[in-house]
Design brief:
By secondary structure, the protein is α/β, with parallel strands linked by helices. It has three domains: about 90 residues, Translation factors (Elongation Factor Tu (Ef-tu), domain 3, Beta Barrel); about 130 residues, Nucleotide-binding domain of ferredoxin-NADP reductase (FNR) module (Rossmann fold); about 90 residues, Beta-grasp domain (Ubiquitin-like (UB roll), Roll). About 20% of the residues lie in helices and about 35% in strands. It has seven helices and 19 strands. The strands form four sheets. Strands 4-3-6-1-2-5 form a six-stranded antiparallel beta sheet, covered by helices on one side. A six-stranded parallel beta sheet has the order 10-9-8-7-11-12, sandwiched between helices. A hairpin with a 2-residue loop joins β3 and β4. The longest helix is centred in the middle third of the chain and has 14 residues. The radius of gyration is 21 Å and the shape is globular. It starts with a strand and ends with a strand.
Length: about 350
């Protein structure tokens, strides 16, 4: 299961009218447990109106910095993001799990060229990756395509402008605004023409591409990069909202036996119609790892050891991992009347 520790809020910086950067002091005895690679995320937990709520947020700080920082944009009717933006204060404490996630770049190769495509709050993990890249590399080139409505609504706008001025030979930003005509920026949304315009300005295809933001933008960008000859294995995706593309699970098992192992403890449960395996576990008050519950993060990955299950949506696991039995348990629905799920064997 996810292990949470209380962290004290050390700083709150408002970067747009509806987004803040929250920084947390790292207790000395937890520094090794909370080390991370740029691009990873943490899960935050708080009691809001008497209910424990968890959400995952990408780290915008770098491993070299002394604090853990996340950027949080307030979402309309978003319980956790509204709490962060409106109620949280310096000195308050939140429970935080150790960093995790597969959307990261180990920035030790000085010859790599990187392309990042982000929209809105999708910039948060990219901001960390970019800063680590510029800190650790003296020769690599980083290209960022970043879409927003206006400069005033753009997270990390000032910070990115500063980096752009400081590293003119290593960093090129293609600013894209959909509601504001700005000098030196593109007007509209990130699409094939914007991606091709940026790629045509480069001397070679990127060694790695990082796509983060709304699902339609990610899928269209990935398709265009592949069309241009970028290897699919070198394209890294991070959704910030649950996927809109879900499939109908055929031959769902509405009853049967569900065995679950987590933290070396085995539980015997019953399958429940139209419930995911994670839902069944949580409704049985079993502590298993989870965070977003929308197939966006990777906290709830487990392995099907016996039986069969299919996922409603999956933008995290590779085809080979799925073939090996790995599932996002928040998306997995049983298709056999006997199934064994192991959270420890991942």
């Amino acid at each position: 299961m996810l292990i949470f520790h209380p962290f004290k809020v050390s700083e709150i910086e408002r970067i747009t009218k509806d987004a803040v950067v929250i920084s947390f002091e790292i207790p000395f005895h937890l520094k090794s447990s909370y080390s991370f690679i740029s691009g990873q995320y943490i899960s935050l937990e708080a009691e809001i109106n008497g209910v424990n709520v968890r959400r995952s947020y990408s780290l915008c700080s770098t491993p070299e910095q002394p604090a853990l920082s996340v950027g949080v944009k307030e979402v309309p009717k978003g319980v956790f993001s509204s709490f962060i933006n409106q109620s949280l204060r310096v000195g308050d404490s939140l429970n935080i799990s150790p960093p995790e996630g597969r959307f990261f770049y180990d920035s030790k190769n000085e010859n790599h060229s990187i392309l990042a495509i982000a929209a809105g709050s999708g910039i948060t993990p990219v901001f960390s990756i970019l800063n680590s890249f510029l800190t650790n590399n003296k020769f690599g080139v980083f290209t960022l395509i970043y879409g927003n409505k206006t400069p005033e609504q753009t997270m990390f706008y000032k910070g990115l402008k500063t980096l752009e001025e400081k590293h003119p030979k290593q960093l090129k930003i293609f600013w894209v605004f959909s509601q504001s005509n700005e000098e030196g920026a593109l007007f509209g949304r990130i699409d094939d023409s914007v991606i091709n315009f940026a790629l045509n300005k480069q001397h070679k295809l990127p060694d790695h591409s990082f796509l983060c933001g709304p699902e339609p933008m990610i899928l269209e960008s990935k398709k265009e990069l592949i069309n241009r000859g970028v290897s699919e294995k070198a394209i890294h995706l991070e959704l910030f909202t649950a996927s809109s593309e879900t499939k109908e699970i055929q031959n769902k098992a509405d009853k049967g036996h569900f065995t679950l192992t987590c933290d070396d403890v085995t539980h015997n449960l019953k399958l429940v119609p139209n419930k995911t395996l994670l839902d069944i576990a949580l409704n049985s008050r079993i502590e298993v790892p989870y965070s977003c519950q929308g197939g966006v993060c990777s906290s709830c990955i487990a392995r099907v050891k016996v039986g069969k299950a299919s996922m409603l949506t999956n933008q995290i696991l590779t085809d080979s991992e799925v073939e090996e039995g790995l599932v996002l348990s928040c998306q997995a629905v049983a298709q056999s009347e006997s199934i064994y799920l192991d959270y420890d064997d991942v």
